[in-house]
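re: that complex we talked abt at group meeting.

here r the seqs, copy pasted straight from the sheet so there may be weird spacing, ignore it
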Amino acid sequence: GEDVEQSLFLSVREGDSSVINCTYTDSSSTYLYWYKQEPGAGLQLLTYIFSNMDMKQDQRLTVLLNKKDKHLSLRIADTQTGDSAIYFCAERGQAGTALIFGKGTTLSVSS
Amino acid sequence: DTGVSQDPRHKITKRGQNVTFRCDPISEHNRLYWYRQTLGQGPEFLTYFQNEAQLEKSRLLSDRFSAERPKGSFSTLEIQRTEQGDSAMYLCASSSLTYTDTQYFGPGTRLTVL
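got the structure back, here u go
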């Protein structure tokens, strides 16, 4: 069945790069997403990548997709304390429109 | 602000009571989704509408849950005879078929069942 897995925690120092990893199982996924959630808030869309792309860059964010290994990563350059949050990876298959989410990676940024 | 809005933001109720949540999607978005998120988990899909038609319901949506989108704009999610296990964040999202169907989320309604 469909499953999305992420490491649960990542701790970095301010100014360093953060890399959050995700693996998924549905090879028919058409879009893969990264959302950010701050405490008590909803989900903020950060970026997404179409399955026929290998990389997408958007300001400090770089998404890498290895479709063969079903591996997705989100790199945040020059990480700031305001980046501290939970980051969710999600996939969307061709058949349905429901997003399948991982459990989220808690990013902690220390100054 | 033209984002997704949800009301109320917080709801505390006693077990056995009925509760109703409202979601207003981004205007002109024809798809609307409900998800449930429990502590330490990612959101889980409940149901979605395309215009006023409810096209898909997950197995998580028990008989005590009902959702409507009567005019294809706002939507309501009702939970009857609430149980403590219903305590969660209920998230609404909307999307437009005309552009990548990307889902934008509202702030959520936090439900606590005592």
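couple things i noticed - The first strand of chain B starts at residue 5 and ends at 7. Residues 32 and 94 of chain B are 4 Å apart (CA to CA).
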